Amino acid sequence: MPLQEDVDVQTSLKLLIVLSKAYKSIMDKAVKDIKNYGLSASEFGIMDVLHKKGKIPIQQIGGKILITSGTMTFNIDKLENKGLIRRIPSTEDRRVIHAEITEAGEELFTRIFPQHASSIHGMMNVLTTDQKLEAIALLKLLGKGAHSYDNET
Q1: What is the DSSP annotation of 59-81?
Q2: Which of 2, 44, 45, 61 could form a disulfide with 65 if both were Cys (CB 3.0 to 4.6 A apart)?
Q3: Percent of the chain with pLDDT over 70
């Protein structure tokens, strides 16, 4: 009979695999949906931040959607070339550049977001609302635990 510690380790490994596969399945479908609107996932994320927050420094956007500064600059350039956002130099600090969604960007985002949200809801709808809330709480706990774990000890 296996020791409880061995069972716990195997269960942790299984959880990582199941979590990874679920994340990949959901993100593959979400990215495919976003591409239907002519945007990359990063572009969509940037527009979402600007739609919700308004004009903000470009440097702050990356932290909100977890992309690097190089990826940020590339995607900001693409969105600006499409006329969906604009760069605005700061009047207080010339090192700071703000990004702001344009009228055309706002129109596009408000048109596509409900469709995208519906697609995400369809994928998540295999769970009840209570199960979704429980999953959110458990995943937050798991993330905090992983963040505070120090395997050097």
Answers
A1: HHHHHHHT--HHHHHHHHHHHHH
A2: 45
A3: 97
- Which tens digits make up the pLDDT trace of 118-129? 999 999 999 999
Q: What is the pLDDT of residues 18-70, one digit of tens each?
A: 999 999 999 999 999 999 999 999 999 999 999 999 999 998 998 888 888 88
Question: What pairs with residue 53 in β-bridges?
Answer: none
Neighbouring C-beta atoms of residue 4, cutoff 10 Å: 8
Residue 97 phi/psi, 5-degree rounding, is: -120, 130
Distance between CA atoms of residues 32 and 130, nearest Å: 28
Q: What is the CATH number of domain 4-148?
A: 1.10.10.10
Q: Which helix (H) or strand (E) holds 136?
A: helix 129-148
**Residue partners of 69: CB distance under 8 A and separation at least 6:** 59, 62
Per-residue burial over 17-36, b = 16 or more CB atoms within 10 Å of its CB, e = otherwise: eeeeeeeeeeeeebeebbee
